[in-house]
Amino acid sequence: MIDRWIAEASRALRELGAGNPRFEAELLLAQAIQRPRTFLFTYPEYQPTPKERAHLNDLLGRRLSGEPLQYVLGTAAFRDLTLRVGPGTLIPRSETEILVEIAWDALGRWCQRSPRGAPAPWVIDVGVGSGAILLALLYEATHMLLAQCDDPGTPQVWFRPLGIDVAPIALGYTMDNARLNELPCPALVRGDLLSSVRLPARSTAARPAAPVVAAIVSNPPYITSAEMIELQPEIREHEPPVALHGGADGLDVIRRLLDDALPFVQQGAILCFEIGEAQEAAVRAELARRALERFTTVHADLAQRPRVVLVEPV
């Protein structure tokens, strides 16, 4: 029964244009019967109940209508995390995992430069969405110690996480995903980029230093108007345009992010964000206008395309 259903579903998904139709069929079946995918191979003779068959048909119908697989399943994998996703939030993608690696390494260097005993700094995710970037950094902070910042015997989060998003639904997903992955819940703010964040007052001899901003991370919308038209229907018709569309040249939000982040970078904060593969030259020009280009490195994704910009004032 299981093999027959998988074969039939695979054929239908292949006609839809799914990249790995059998794998998708297996995931949908495992979801419908509420078993791990390995169960399908261990018990190929299993007969789904009528309720499970109805659930199977519903899930497959949603996928065949063009709904993204992650929305149908209700979750997406991102690094070591399982994240709840659904309409109203961007589906995290593998290239963004590279941003986490680069930001984490840069945070380690920032921590080495910071004075011992300073208040825990803020790490801010602008456009937090499902929480993928911020929660992945929190996961690293709770599972890997930075010897310069933490007591080696007590792993703990050494920074204060803050997620900002214009969409309340995204903040809800981030909160749920922190609980799902047993991570500390970040501070969450509904806002437009960094407009709701103020620089701390400078310290005096009579007043201890306020927590500073160590890093600003973001996967901003950077798809151009022309590219939006060419997107796969399952992306264009289901994922939130506000998280995808960056204006005519794709840089509308990035320019505003650079303007908002500039005062923080001037005080030593790291800025790490994702860009489109054809935007490196234009983004470098924007950074040069703000006197930041000399602090900038651009990192490639696994396909060797420019993908992550790191501004690291040292």
Uncertain residue segments: 145-150, 204-208
Please report the total strand number as a whole number.
Answer: 9
Order of strands, widest sheet: 5-4-3-6-7-9-8
Domains, number: 2
Query: How many helical stretches?
Result: 12
What would the CATH topology of the largest domain be?
Rossmann fold
* CATH structural class of the largest domain: Alpha Beta
Output the CATH homologous superfamily of the largest domain.
Vaccinia Virus protein VP39
**Class by helix and strand content?**
alpha/beta
What is the helix content?
40-55%
Q: How would you portray this structure in words?
A:
This protein is α/β, with parallel strands linked by helices and 314 residues long. Strand 8 and strand 9 form a beta hairpin. Helix 1 packs across helix 2. The N and C termini lie far apart (62 Å). The strands form two sheets. The protein has a seven-stranded mixed sheet with strand order 5-4-3-6-7-9-8, with helices on both faces. A two-stranded antiparallel sheet has the order 1-2. About 4% of the residues have low confidence. The protein folds into two domains: 64 residues, Orthogonal Bundle (Helicase, Ruva Protein, domain 3), CATH 1.10.8; 235 residues, Vaccinia Virus protein VP39 (Rossmann fold), CATH 3.40.50.150. The chain has twelve helices and nine strands.
Describe the structure concisely.
With 314 residues, this protein is α/β, with parallel strands linked by helices. The chain has helices at 2-16, 21-33, 38-42, 50-64, 69-73, 94-113, 132-143, 168-180, 225-230, 233-236, 252-266, 280-289, and strands at 75-78, 81-84, 122-126, 160-165, 187-190, 213-218, 270-274, 296-300, 306-311.
